[in-house]
Amino acid sequence: MSLLLSDLTVTFPDGAERRRVLDGLDLAVAPGEAVALTGPSGSGKSTVLAVAGLLRRPDGGRVRIAGQEATDLSDPARDALRARSVGLVFQQARLLAALTTREQLELVARLRGERGSGLARSRRRADGLLAELDLTAEAGKRPHQLSGGQQQRVAVARALMADPQVLLVDEPTSALDPARAGAMFELLVRVAHEHRMATLVVTHDERSLGLLDRVVSMCEGRLVPASGATVQGRGSASAVEHPPGRPDVLGHQ
Ligand SMILES: Nc1ncnc2c1ncn2[C@@H]1O[C@H](COP(=O)(O)OP(=O)(O)OP(=O)(O)O)[C@@H](O)[C@H]1O
């Protein structure tokens, strides 16, 4: 498994006590599998992404990324593992206003300190990703010259620059119309399959769930069966993660 969350617990302060908002969560995403994480507001989806993306340490449990145990690593080692193995795409594309599309991608290599042949290799990768995500014509444009869907595609391309084994995506379609939302889900599934990335997509967008390989549903911090088992992904795995005998409650960073 490229992403393995085992027996995760997260608590938040609640008055004099701590509220347990994640309690024994188990979730595994295989290489090349695109999984939707859905559920009502406040059910804990963002907390799952924060823990999986090594942005929040859980109170208990294990996080394994690309075969490496992350839980007990020092902060610098976690940062390095994240930079090496995890791609993050947020609700807003979070592009830098002054940079062109190509420069947004090249910045990833520059921040890694690449020079010379390494930087040249990364530039070729950037050009390849721009072509793959149908952004070549946008390579010289700045964010304000791009549509919302194009901006999100740039954010995905940027996340792929490090060739991550895990891709975590938070509400990628909240600013998009239905047609563009569908295209964005199709793109995420395609890149998950082609780049063999374990891909976890937080979404409220029920219309697009069928495009994903598998759907994990949450309610009030627990994993629940998809309503009427109608939400079936395209993959052969079961539609819902539902570890027997142990509810899953999640919390936010
Ligand atoms: N920093 C925090 N301190 C205390 N409680 C928090 C904190 N962050 C989140 N929570 C609580 O944890 C629970 C889960 O929040 P989370 O943001 O993970 O849910 P979500 O499903 O992603 O919600 P949404 O769909 O609205 O983004 C919520 O009850 C929230 O109020």
Automatic annotation (TrEMBL):
GO terms for molecular function: ATP binding; ATP hydrolysis activity; transmembrane transporter activity. Residues 228-253 are annotated as: Disordered. Residues 3-252 form the ABC transporter domain. The keyword rRNA-binding does not apply. Keywords: ATP-binding, Nucleotide-binding, Transport. CDD domains: ABC_MJ0796_LolCDE_FtsE. SMART domains: AAA. GO terms for cellular component: plasma membrane. Transmembrane segments: none annotated. The keyword Nucleotide-binding applies. SUPFAM superfamilies: P-loop containing nucleoside triphosphate hydrolases. Residues 243-253 have a biased composition (Basic and acidic residues). PANTHER family: ABC TRANSPORTER RELATED (PTHR24220:SF685), IMPORT ATP-BINDING PROTEIN (PTHR24220). This is Putative ABC transport system ATP-binding protein. It comes from Kytococcus aerolatus.
